[in-house]
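Good morning,

Both structures are done.
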Amino acid sequence: MKYMKIRLEKASESYIVGVLLAVTGGFLDVYTYVCRGGVFANAQTGNIVLLGISAADGNWEQIWSYVWPILAFMAGILLTEAVRKKYRYNPGLHWRQIVIALEFVVLLCIAFVPSGPWDDMVNTLVSFVCSMQVESFRLLHGNAYATTMCTGNLRSATEQLFYYNINKDKKARNRSLQYYGIIFFFIVGAVVGTALTRMLLEKAVLVVCFLLLTVFVIMFIPPAEQTEAAYRTDGKG
């Protein structure tokens, strides 16, 4: 029987995972802004700017609403690197699945925290899990990208578009379209997140939990080289 090559990428770098996480990123950003006191969970640049405005206005109490998410983002990066170091060669769950599971549990708990006095805590926790996500999923088809913010993706997309126009390099064109696609799905997440958050309030984050659960399952798909090796072992090559 003719050997059939199955093209399964490394799941964490696949486009479907990138799309789902981009939707998640856009959703969470509007969730905290619309429902949790006007704080950005993903893009800490926005929080740093708002912190500066509060400092300039002498609104010292409001400053802490921005300081805690920034610090939580930093803590999430540190924890993610610790998880990667300890479980990188874990024969069971992939270390990225452990990160997704942690993100899922935290967001599931947040869904049952009412809006109001606990918003600062919720925003801090969302910033924490978003930093874990952006640190864990950094490559799309081998190219650097982000799932919780768009500035870098927009730069890379436009840069690759320029290279395509100059050299007619189809790979550059495809990379550009992939980046623009991720930005598009981030916007989709923001649009859907706005509508659902206004409708469901704090419970809207359960939609993100479902998306993360889907990513968790997808990551059980083996990389292409493992699948091909299995076919050869079974004598189907």
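Second structure follows.
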Amino acid sequence: MLSTTFLVSAVVACIAGMVRGFAGFGAAMLMTPVFSALYGPAVGIALCLLLEIAVALPLVPGVVRLVEWRRIGLLLLAAALAVPLGTHTLTGVEPEPMRWAISAIILGAVALLASGWRFPGRPNAATTVAAGATSGFLNGLSGMAGPPIAFYYLAGNEPAARVRANLTTYFVFVDLIALASFASRDLIGWSTGAQGLFLAPAVMLGGVVGERLFPLASEKFYRRLALGLLVCVAIGSLLV
């Protein structure tokens, strides 16, 4: 626990937890590249998923009253079907072209949101299924389910508190689905679970701090931060 690798992991986990507690997403953006470099992609992504669940669970009781469960359910159903495809792709496809494709798609989505575009009315069922499936695929592939769902909610006109509540709750379930897929392919071992247990306090502490900071932010600041996080995801995906 006093090794340089562990201390670096703990600091990154704490910062990532703070981002997650504030924005409702973005922790994987920080943890996945660092953990993949320190432990290898498969272990790094599995560890990231474990810590994402650890930081999100204490946040759910405070936001559950704002969650729109019907849409969350449809998103999760689509994600559950797509996660195994992403996991299979992780173990069988060259990563370089996939990283560039993910980065380009995310940057395009950010540019669209920054232009002021929003869904005309509420997103329909087909749009919801597409967002969930894309999120599940990316979660199985890279441990970063955030970009499609963040785009899906930010493209609407809901207040920041409701967006954050839905993102926080969605990721608890989709990460559990991804973990089950990883476990079924023997990509999670006892050592990974032990590492996650020791790093959990750091990421949970960050989550509490981020949650306390959220009420201090304006709607405009929240959306700008969310777009900034998506840009960082696009850049970070090239480094994983």
